[in-house]
Design goal:
Helix content is about 25%, strand content about 25%. The chain is an alpha/beta fold. It has 2 domains: about 180 residues, Quinone Oxidoreductase, Chain A, domain 1, CATH 3.90.180; about 140 residues, Rossmann fold. The strands form 3 sheets. Strands 3, 5, 6, 10, 11, 18 and 19 form a 7-stranded mixed β-sheet that branches. Strands 8-7-2-1-4-9 form a 6-stranded mixed β-sheet, with no helix packed on it. α5 links the parallel β12 and β13. It is globular, with a radius of gyration of 20 Å.
């Protein structure tokens, strides 16, 4: 079938065109996409030299299923996740679903652009009118939630929530610093609040984002200077706010390579620093920042276990403990994907979402 999709040439260009996809085969699901979140990773993929269909935060309606799919049926409302674990490999057997060594996905040649197979970002390619994905990517929606709010659970919410709950294991009464109050950072903030943190300090260079941080649960904010290298001056402010020691936990959520070591400067001795934004570039770290007994974690996808974490997140949403609808501050038609990405880079939205008719 022919589908409208947002594509990149891998050299900086984003455009909308028609792709062709094959029907679902065994253990696969065809989903009509209704919403797709816009993420910094989409921007990164624009410059990785490989043509792709963009999008890895998605929600929609099941159209068809292949043999072996029993947990959803045509007509079901679903959200997508990208931890499509096999359940059998070394990592899966140890519960590390996001680190699966044999992720399930349809082969490249079954999605084509101008007759040639094309990759789907994270094997999802959610910025498309339809997508065929592995059954493990599909979580049934059984709560009353809009498609735009549901789609962002698939990455921004999961990454932020999981980084707090699964990776750092934030304890009640603790102090937490969150560097970057964007899509992931806001979810770290509200997950820390849910975990019982007594103090949640948001750090950003954008005053508007700090206002959003307070709406999502930050108890304090620090407006950092743009020329504060490594946020070392901000770190001194954090220490002054935490009895001179530093916070118990600090999370980096900016996706800025130069800030990869920043959480280490903001935690106390024996504190936990978490790099949650997916920085993959080579960086230089002053090893004195590890002094003393500090732990630095770089979790993938918040150490997500979709079958466990997605229901927990949606239950917290139903209870009013997690804000999801409020995260979506603007929606765009599929044809305006380029504008949505520009607005994300400018820090205009908490989360921008493409609505797919």
């Amino acid at each position: 079938m022919q589908c409208k999709a947002v594509l990149t040439d891998g050299r900086g260009k984003v455009f909308v065109d028609i792709v062709e996809i094959d029907p679902p085969q065994a253990d696969e699901v065809l989903v009509q996409m209704r919403a797709a979140g816009v993420c910094h990773t989409d921007h990164k993929y624009m410059f990785r030299d490989i043509p792709r269909i963009l999008g890895h935060e998605g929600a929609g309606i099941v159209v068809d299923v292949g043999p072996g799919v029993t947990h959803v049926k045509p007509g079901d409302r679903v959200l997508l996740n990208w931890a499509t674990n096999c359940g059998e490999c070394f990592q899966c057997q140890r519960g590390n679903h996001s680190l699966c060594e044999s992720r399930r996905h349809p082969p490249l040649h079954r999605t084509r652009y101008k007759g040639t197979g094309i990759e789907r970002a994270f094997f999802l390619g959610a910025m498309c009118s339809h997508t065929v994905v592995a059954k493990q990517a599909v979580n049934k929606l059984e709560v009353d939630i809009s498609f735009p709010a549901a789609c962002i659970v698939g990455c921004a919410v999961m990454t932020g929530y999981g980084s707090v709950v699964n990776a750092a294991k934030v304890q009640p009464g603790s102090s937490v610093v969150v560097i970057g109050a964007g899509g992931v950072g806001l979810n770290i903030i509200q997950a820390a609040r849910v975990a019982g943190a007594a103090r949640v300090i948001a750090v950003d260079i954008n005053g508007h984002k700090l206002e959003l941080a307070q709406q999502f649960g930050a108890t304090d904010v620090v407006l950092a200077a743009r020329n504060d290298r490594g946020l070392l001056q901000a770190a001194e402010q954090i220490k002054a706010m935490t009895a001179g020691r530093g916070a118990d936990y600090a999370f980096e959520a900016t996706s800025v390579p130069a800030l990869g070591a920043a959480p280490l400067a903001m935690v106390r001795n024996a504190g936990v620093a978490v790099q949650a934004s997916g920085i993959e570039e080579e960086i230089t770290i002053n090893m004195r920042l590890f002094e003393w007994d500090k732990v630095y974690i770089n979790p993938r996808y918040g150490m997500c276990r979709p079958s466990v974490d997605v229901p927990q997140i949606l239950d917290l949403y139903v209870q009013g403990m997690l804000k999801l609808e409020e995260l979506v501050t603007r929606t765009y038609p599929l044809d305006d994907a380029s504008q949505a990405i520009d607005d994300m880079l400018a820090g205009v939205n908490a989360k921008g979402v493409l609505v797919i008719a």
